[in-house]
Amino acid sequence: MRKSYLKLHLDNEELKLSFKNAEDQKIKDRWHLLWLVQAKNLKATKASEYLGHDKSYGCYWIKAYNEKGPSVITEKKITNPNLGDPKITQEM
After folding, report:
1. In terms of residue numbers, what domain contains 70?
2. Rounded distance, CA 89 to CA 92, Å?
3. Is 51 a member of any domain?
4. Residues 6+ away with beta carbon under 8 Å from 33
5. Does residue 36 form part of some domain?
C-alpha cells in the first residue's frame, strides 16, 4: 500500500493545535487524523484504525482536505453526492 499524501495546507504544529483546540469530537478526529498522517507519517488506513474508525475514513478526509483545503474539516454537515433519491416512493 502506498503512503498517504497530504497537501501542505497547514504545517504540523497548526494541525496539532487544530485537533487539540477542537471542541466537537468529530472535527477533533478529522484534525487528529491529518496530524497523524503528516507529522507521524502514518498511512491513512492506520491512522483511521488508531482513532477507532473504518479504514476508509482516512482516505475520505485526506481526499477532501487535499481537494478543498482546511475549511472542509470544520464543516459539520457533509452531504454525500452519491446518495440519490429515496428508493421507496409514496406510491408503494
Report:
1. 12-74
2. 6
3. yes
4. 44, 47, 48, 51, 53, 57, 58, 61, 62
5. yes
Query: DSSP letters of 5-53?
Result: ----SS-HHHHHHHHHH--SHHHHHHHHHHHHHHHS---HHHHHHHTT-
At residue 52, the pLDDT reads 96
Show the low-confidence residues of the chain (pLDDT under 50): 81-84
* Predicted pLDDT at 82: 46
Using a cut of 0.90, tell me whether the model's pTM lies above it.
Answer: no
Whether the CA torsion 46, 48, 53, 55 is positive or negative: it is negative
Residue tagged 496539532 (cell numbers): 16
Residue 89 lies in a domain: no
